[in-house]
Amino acid sequence: MVHALREAHRVLVPGGLLVDLRPAPEHRRVAIARGGREVHVGTMRESFDDDHAADRAVAWALHEGWFALERRMRFGCRRVMETVAEFREWVADFDTRRENPSHEWLALRLERALEAAGRGRRIVASGPLVLNVLRKQDGVRGAPRRRGESVRGAMIAIRRGPRRRISPACGR
Amino acid sequence: MTCVVDPERNELKALRSIAAWRGRRVIEIGCGDGRLTLRLASLGARVLAIDPDADAIRAARKSLPERFAERVRYRVGRAGRLSGRKQSFDLAVFAWAL
Fold it and tell me: Using an 8 Å Cβ cutoff, are A87 and A123 in contact?
């Protein structure tokens, strides 16, 4: 992950932006939706090891002075599926990639809930996404750093967001 | 397959709010089947989208709408070794890829 950030730093123009968009480390809620109403069926049990590793990589890039955190946003994202087969396919994909525990228990619960709900129902998995915006700096490893620019300080910054907001224009 | 991701287009709204994308040179790292790539192209960006999964890149190329053909290029590649020259992109997007 750190290599990827270093590569991104290399290919970006001075002042260019790095956009890091990914799910927040929070368990997704799965529901059955019908006619504007959602009935909660279960909460997924994802592993967040990769998310924490990504946070550490970003914190390292900030600590090294490659980037400065400009903005952090958080917003909801829903995935709407029609069948349990689609749910199983989606979950199998990221269960494999993330070494999550099996979610077959939830698929079985969804099967029962769908049967009971009748026609016109959908499966909805929802959870927040986070979007970190980092601006390229000309950081040099070993250069003197300002107070609060420790890795720990950077970790806190990427979890809470920057102290100030910036103009949306991207550098070129 | 009838799965719809982000029907409210919150992702697109957030992306639109952080930068002026029109005409920008963007590298998208971890593009998968190109779902987000098309959203970036719809904002006017010129996108080089990479992913290590050759099957996903094949699928993305196949489903690339004609109107974005000039603006989007897909390549098999890894985040740790990007093909772009030094300082050749205005924005780099890690789409669920870090």
Answer: yes
Q: Decide if A16 contacts B91 (C-beta within 8 A).
A: yes
CATH code (residue B64): 3.40.50.150
Can you state the angle between helices A84-98 and A104-117, rounded to 10 degrees? 160
Subunit contact A19:B94, Cβ cutoff 8 A: yes
To test the contact with chain B by mutation, choose from A50, A56, A60, A77 the residue with the greatest count of B C-beta atoms within 10 A, namely A77
Q: What is the pLDDT of residues B16-43, one digit of tens each?
A: 999 999 999 999 999 999 999 999 999 9
Neighbouring C-alpha atoms within 13 Å toward the C-beta of A161 = 10
Q: What's the complex ipTM?
A: 0.92
Cα–Cα dist B68/A2, whole Å: 32
The dihedral built from the CA positions of residue B44, B15, A59 and A140, taken in this order, carries a sign that is positive
Counted residue by residue, chain B has a size of: 98
Domain ranges of chain A: 2-160
The count of domains in chain B is 1
Q: What is the 3-state secondary structure (H, E, C) of A82-119?
A: CCHHHHHHHHHHHHHHHCCCCCHHHHHHHHHHHHHHCC
pTM, to two decimals: 0.83
